[in-house]
Automatic annotation (TrEMBL):
Record carries keyword Iron: no
Gene3D superfamilies from the UniProt entry: Protein of unknown function (DUF541), domain 1, Protein of unknown function (DUF541), domain 2
Alphabetic keyword roster: Signal
Species name: Sphaerisporangium album
GO annotation, biological process: DNA damage response
Pfam families membership: SIMPL (PF04402)
Signal sequence extent: 1-36
KW DNA damage (keyword) present: no
Protein name: DUF541 domain-containing protein
Length: 248
């Protein structure tokens, strides 16, 4: 084999190797470019549905109104035991009538006295040994003039040994008006908090998305003052609301 032939063969092989290397480089570069290019799944932009959702802020509002009760509710009753069922029932009716007369004489209106419990049952020392029959009648009296509170309590205490005083509570006659005032105060409190958060985030308060009242909104009750058994003291009506506002 002559020198020229060997030289041609070497050049041919080098050329082929260069072509292969160039092709491999192109494939590698293409793979790198494809890997670096962001596809739809690798996007960091928010989804269209998330971008369309309004910004919201949730707050809790509290409203309180103080008031002095003007009503007193007294729970009283008669409880006794007799040897016979008929005697027990007759005696409890007589005692309840006497107690009612005492309440009326102390200034309670007839429409404000009502029976709320009546029971009659046998009592046993150890079954089947019967020791008698127990009867009871519970009553509730509403005192609308608190200046008569002392007289009513004294009348109950003097109505007999078998009379029971089971509780005193205070109320207000304008309870619904107080609840409305407390609701308005709670809403204003929630609105003020939402506006503060909106200002902190550079937004404005939009519409109310949700509004809920927490707890029981029934007629408010007031407990007795500690220093006197029949002093109404002062109570607080409180309303709590949870609100969600749109931020625009």
């Amino acid at each position: 084999m002559c020198f020229m032939t060997v030289l041609v063969m070497l050049v041919t092989r080098v050329t082929r190797l260069s072509v292969v290397l160039a092709a491999a480089g192109a494939v590698f570069a293409g793979a790198q470019a494809a890997h670096a290019a962001p596809g739809p799944a690798a996007s960091t932009a928010p989804a269209a549905s998330a971008a369309g959702e309004p910004a919201e802020v949730g707050v809790v509002g509290r409203g309180s109104v103080q008031a002095t009760p003007d009503l007193m509710r007294v729970n009283v009753g008669v409880e006794l035991r007799r040897d016979k069922a008929g005697a027990a029932f007759a005696a409890v009716k007589e005692g309840a009538a006497k107690l009612t007369d005492a309440l009326l004489a102390a200034g309670v209106a007839p429409r404000d006295v009502r029976t709320n419990d009546l029971s009659l049952g046998a009592e046993y020392q150890k079954y089947p040994k019967l020791v008698g029959y127990r009867a009871s009648q519970g009553m509730e009296a509403l005192v609308r003039d608190l200046s008569k509170a002392d007289a009513v309590i004294d009348a109950v205490a003097a109505a007999g040994e078998e009379v029971r005083l089971s509780g005193v509570s205070f109320e207000i006659s304008r309870s619904q008006a107080l609840l409305k005032e407390a609701r308005a105060a709670a809403y204003r409190d929630a609105q003020a908090k939402a506006e503060q958060y909106a200002a902190l985030t550079g937004r404005r308060v939009g519409r109310v998305m949700k509004l809920e009242e927490e707890g029981d909104s029934g007629p408010p009750r007031f407990t007795m003052a500690e220093k006197s058994s029949i002093s109404p003291g002062q109570g607080t009506v409180t309303i709590i609301v949870r609100a969600i506002y749109e931020l625009v």
